[in-house]
Amino acid sequence: MKLKVGDTVKIVAGKDKGREGKVEMVLPKTSSVVVPEVNMYKKHVKGQQGQKGGMYDLPRPLNVAKVALICPNCKKQTRVGFKMEKDAKVRVCSKCKKQIWIV
Ligand SMILES: [Zn+2]
């Protein structure tokens, strides 16, 4: 996965296009990420023992194709590249070529 938890991303497609947020969860199986307050939907939850039922707003996973990484170095919307550094694969920004660290 090119994206990691804590990355700042911009939504580039769908109803929340243009919004920014931090990746909260990465789902490699479906190539999607969860960003709080983005792609929200209402879920009706039945009450169970000890738990109140009702309507909940939950973020729905977004496909990675619908988000773009915001580089923490140059603050631009960018693509993620990879390079080898001391036998470890590190992520680099395709615009400023700097390594992408999660702040
Ligand atoms: Zn950059």
Walk me through the structure.
This protein is an all-beta fold and 103 residues long. It contains no helices and 11 strands. A 4-stranded antiparallel sheet has the order 2-1-8-9, with no helix packed on it. It binds zinc ion. Zinc ion binds next to loops.
Summarize the structure.
The protein contains no helices and eleven strands. By secondary structure, it is mostly beta strands. Strands 2-1-8-9 form a four-stranded antiparallel sheet, with no helix packed on it. Strands 3-4-7 form a three-stranded antiparallel sheet, with no helix packed on it. Strands 5-6 form a two-stranded antiparallel ribbon.
Topology of helices and strands:
Blueprint: E1 8-11, E2 20-22, E3 25-27, E4 32-34, E5 40-45, E6 54-59, E7 62-63, E8 67-70, E9 77-78, E10 80-85, E11 88-93
Antiparallel strand pairs: 1-2, 1-8, 3-4, 4-7, 5-6, 8-9, 10-11
The structure holds zinc ion.
